[in-house]
Every structure is written in C-alpha cells, then in structure tokens.
Design goal:
This protein is α/β, with parallel strands linked by helices and 423 residues long. It contains ten helices and 16 strands. It has a six-stranded mixed beta sheet with strand order 1-2-6-3-7-15. It has a four-stranded antiparallel beta sheet with strand order 10-11-9-12, with helices on one face.
Length: 423
C-alpha cells in the first residue's frame, strides 16, 4: 500500500520517540507521559481520547498510577469496530547493551531500544496503518480504536484486565481485536499456553549457626522440594506434548521455571559492608512459573504441586510448608475460521504472496483478558518483530518489518470496514 510506504520515515520516527519514553515495569514509570503523547498524536486526527486510570488495580498507586489510553475514530457509516491493542510497558534493560536502551537509535535498517520489538514497534505500526487508512478512506464504516495499555509485562491487571472489566472489550463495543505483539510479520498468533504462578514457603526453626543441630533449616527443606522436582516433575513435564502450534517448538511441552528463591536473612541494605549474622534459616520461599498446555487443567497443575509437596512431607518428619496461588490464566486459542483470522490471513497473502503461518505463543499476553473477561474471542496477535529478541540486550525491530506489518494492518482495515460499494 503506497500510502503506508510513504509514511516510512514517520513510522521510524514514531517508534524512536516511543522508545525514548522509559515506561519501565516494575514499578510502572512514565505511564501517564506515554498516554499523553499518544493523545497529542491522535486527537488532532479526529480520534476521541479516553484516559483511564486503573484505580485499585495491582500496582496502582499515587506514585505509580496505572494509566491507559483509548483512541476511537468513528467512520461515516454504521459498522463494526476494529481495535488495535498494544501494551506500553517495558521490562528493565538488564546488562549487555552496546547501545542506549532508551535512545531509539536507528542503525542498519533497525530501530534499537528496550521495547522496540516488544512492542512499541507494533504500536507505531498500528498507528501508521490506521492513519493511512483514515486518510485514504475517510468514509469508512464502523470505527477504529487504538489503545495503549499498562502492565502487560506483569500480568496486565492494571491495563487490559481492568478495561475489560469496565466493558471496553465487550462484543457489543468491539468486534475485532489485533494485538501487535512481535510474532513475525507473516505469522498469525491464535493464542497462548496457560500460566499458573505459585509460591511455596517451607518452615524451620531458627538457631545459632554454630549449633545448627538446635535448629531446623528451612533452606534444606526447600532443597528437598527442588530435588523431588528434578527427580519426578521435570521429566514428567518434558514428556507432555500439545497439539497447539506453539513456537518455538520446545515450548510445545509443559514447562516450569523457578522464578525466584529466597532463604535465610534478607539481602543487606545498600551501604552496609558488614558480614551476615550466624542464623539457621527458619523460612525459605520459592516462586514458581508454570506454563501449561490446552490439554491440561489449572486444577491438575496445582494438584501436581500439592502431591509433590506431600511426598516430600512423608519423607521428612519435620517438614512443613505453605502453598500460595499468586495468579493464573487458562490457555486460549482463536478459531482459524474467525473473521479477524481470515481477514489478516488474506492481507498477509496480498502483501507477501504466501499463506501465513499459524502459531501460538509460549507465554501469555493480553488476549487472555480479552477472552476470559471481555468474552470477545475474535482476537489475535499480529505484529512486527522477532519474539526471541524480546527482553534481550540490544533489542531491535526491523524497519522493513514494521512497514510490511503496517501494510497488512491497513489492508485488514480496508476489508473489515469499507462498504462493498465503496471498497
């Protein structure tokens, strides 16, 4: 589409400007700043803007308010609404960068920076696609919405989950949702695996470190839990396969990640240069990140952990534990015959002259809330970028990939929102 191609430089500049707004999560910085930026960008072009703070959501506070923005452009005729949803938060840069993670530097056909791939490049592509479509076809039917939402990287509860609870993703308001996550420009992501997060705490008895026989070490108890996981749980998970088209292929198995492990004294505060005190740890905590398949159930996932802990308890007379569920969502998969899937597939065919690949994501993204809370199942992820680059040092998004994806998005709008007699 020539109108999108003509906006290439604008797309690059927009991506760089979004990267330069350091929306780090946690704790949730610059959310209001990026929402106001999007408002200034879209309001002059006829988009009605709503700024929504997720008051009371996890993480929301006066210091770190969870701000979201929804921009809506009404067409001339009645019709359906196509919604592009992008999260604005990014994870911390981490070590290993050779470029400024918030510089938005353009180099060798790529835009670099934290969030370039995941997913400010996708947000920029959706904006340019919508602007190009509206400029060429102002008399379209229905409505176009663009949202920038908070907290996807930490579960999305201050973003899409909150908006879905308020009715912003109800089928009566929105009929098609495209989430520009970085799954490659010729792929359609139909859904994702399930996730269950839990925290195990083991208990012991505090004592002097020189006389550990007078205490009971909670870390050793937790070590026994990890040993049992290694012996029985990890092999069992690795043997399970799904029919979901999850990418990369190793993620077509059930997986468990030990997200964190804490035992004994807290880490020393900044500025303290002394030595730790000699104590037997009376508590140890481990946070689990369990990703499961559509063939499994959340009850089965939790039950498997409980059974493991009970086996350890039977082997260790003084073993005591507490299991706390943190959060979880079930797997989701959009049908390949859904209207948004067929439309985007047709646009990919037109742009690339080949059929799309249909995939599922190894991790969850905000489709989970749109489906389970909003009850809106005509939803996919489609956007530029390579998933493997997300959260990595020197993260980037290819400029050609963004332009091509914007063309697919614009063509999808044309197919969904133009009356037959005007298209």
């Amino acid at each position: 589409m020539r109108e999108v191609e003509a906006r290439r430089d604008e797309l690059v500049a927009l991506t760089s400007e979004l990267i330069r707004i350091p929306t780090l999560n946690p704790p949730g910085e610059a959310y209001l700043e990026i929402c106001e930026y999007l408002k200034r960008r879209l309001e002059p072009q006829g988009f009605a803007i709503e700024m929504i703070r997720a008051v009371g959501a996890p993480g929301d506070s006066d210091r770190y308010p969870r701000w979201n923005v929804i921009a809506r452009r009404e067409g001339r005729y009645p019709g359906e609404c196509v919604h592009f949803n992008s999260h604005t938060d990014v994870v911390e840069p981490g070590r290993g960068w050779t470029l400024d993670p918030f510089g938005g530097e353009v180099k060798d056909g790529k835009v670099y920076g934290r969030g370039a791939c995941d997913m400010k490049g996708g947000l920029a592509a959706s904006i340019v696609a919508a602007e190009a479509f509206v400029a060429l076809f102002p008399d379209f039917s229905g409505a176009v919405e663009i949202s920038g939402t908070a907290d996807e990287e930490t579960g999305g509860f201050g973003g899409v989950a909150y908006l879905a609870e308020k009715g912003f993703f109800s089928p009566s308001r929105v009929q098609h949702v495209i989430i520009p996550e970085p799954l490659n420009k010729d792929r359609i992501c139909l859904g994702h695996r399930g996730v269950w997060w839990g925290e195990i705490e083991t208990f012991g008895h505090i004592a002097h470190g020189s006389m550990p026989f007078l205490g009971d070490c909670a870390v050793r108890h937790m070590g026994a839990v990890v040993a049992e996981m290694e012996q029985s749980l990890f092999p069992a998970l690795a043997a399970r396969q799904t029919d979901m088209p999850v990418v990369p292929p190793p993620a077509r198995r059930s997986t468990l990640n030990i997200n964190s492990f804490h035992g004994g004294l807290d880490e020393p505060k900044d500025g303290f240069s002394g030595f730790p005190s000699p104590l037997v740890p009376d508590s140890a905590r481990m946070v689990l990140d369990r990703r499961y398949l559509i063939e499994e159930s959340p009850e089965g996932v939790k039950g498997e952990i409980v059974a493991l802990l009970e086996r350890v308890k039977a082997q260790r007379p003084s073993f005591d534990y507490e299991l706390k569920e943190l959060w979880g969502v079930t797997p989701t998969m959009t049908d390949r015959d859904a209207p948004v899937v067929k439309t985007v597939a047709s646009a990919i065919q037109a742009v690339f002259d080949r059929e799309p690949e249909y995939v599922a994501s190894p991790g969850t993204y905000d489709q989970k809330h749109i489906a389970r809370i909003g009850k809106m199942y005509n939803c996919i992820a489609y956007g530029p970028g390579i998933l493997d680059l997300a959260h990595q040092p020197d993260e980037y998004v290819g400029i050609d990939d963004m332009v091509d994806s914007a063309k697919v998005m614009a063509l999808s709008l044309l197919q969904l929102l133009m009356p037959v007699e005007l298209a």
